[in-house]
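In response to reviewer comment 3 from the previous cycle, which asked for concrete evidence that the modeling workflow produces usable outputs, we include below a single protein chain processed end to end. The sequence was submitted unchanged, and the resulting structure tokens are shown without manual editing.
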Amino acid sequence: MRTHAVASFRKLTPGMLASQRLAMANDIVETTKAEVALALKKSAPALGIDGTTYHVLDILIGLTKADDWKTDRRPLVAISNEKLAEYVCRSKRTVVRCLKKLVEAGVLAYRDSSTGRRFIYRNDTTGEIDRGYGLDFSPARQRVAELKRIAAEFAARLKAEQEAKRSVNRLSRAIQDMLDLGVGDANLAIEFAQSLAEAMSRPCHVLERAEILQSLYEQLLEALATDGSDGIFKEMPPEGDITVTPYNNTNPQNSIDSKKRTSAHADDIETNASGDNAPEKEQISKLRAASRSPLKEGSAVGFTGVSQQGELNPQLSAVSIGLVELATANLQETLGVKFTSWARLVASAEQTCLLVGLSLSGWNSAVSRVGDKMAATVLAVTAEKALRDPEAISSPGGYFRACIDRAIDGKLLLHKSLYGLAES
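The workflow returned the following structure tokens.
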């Protein structure tokens, strides 16, 4: 197999040459398809990969074989530009530009045949590639650590920018409120008002604007503190000038009623705590009954795992977070998290969606239909199965949607899937 075949019709660029050098590296980085896929999808916005280019990347990653990502093989995918154009509903020229963008971003490398045709011949016994030409993911495999760092820095930058936006809104309102109350020196108030307007209209990054407003806010506080009694409360009347008739009239009857209500409520609590009809026992009985009874056909499951008809979803009530944790060991290792609580499982759904290629709209639709906990559990099972046997589930996103439909119909045996994964 040729190591760095680039067709003569391609115009080489510095980015393309850099990707070809990465594809020729001898010290192959040991990683997995899932690890690289997650790193690529997280770092894609920072690399400028979006829109159709991201769609093409997602398809190409899905077409690679998991075993081809081993150190003694090459993650090669052979698909024509015409077929890719059909998949993404774009023109062939658009697909060509997207592939070039991925190559220059250091994600892919060209491995062209003499005719430009892409194909792969595999060994019938071992499944290894005997001869193949197409698109090589070796550059992404070599850069997996760098891609993770880029993704982390991008996430940190987004978080800092969001916090800065909140600070800008908070500080600008606080400064304006203090100015509206009035300061002792009118010229000083005008000066701060002009500074605030200049800071808000100045063309700069949100982080810089937040720093400017923070400095202005501290200066205004200092000015008000040094202004003394003639400061911010100058135009407010003194305490003795405010004439307010105190309202001390109380209704003794209301107090008696209140005591009676409190006493009655205490009696109810005492009765429930000592009797057989305590709310906790009733709730436990309902949960046990729901876990043994099938979900009625046609009942829609809401956001909290309770159907709109008021019945508990037995598929979720029969599942514990401990079972989910035992059944999804591979997924937790890939994401670097532990599903020790439902909150953590739901919080990791965004990363899991990136891992399996599920769109945000698909996830939101599932949450609106079956609730966040149920949707997150189904998503975790889907990702775990895809990680264990990538060939068994060609489209994890479609598999997830089908499971949600089965859950709505009451035909999804979620607890059995979890038990099977945990035992295997």
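DSSP finds 20 helices and four strands in the chain. We consider this sufficient to address the reviewer's concern, and the full set will be provided in the supplementary archive.
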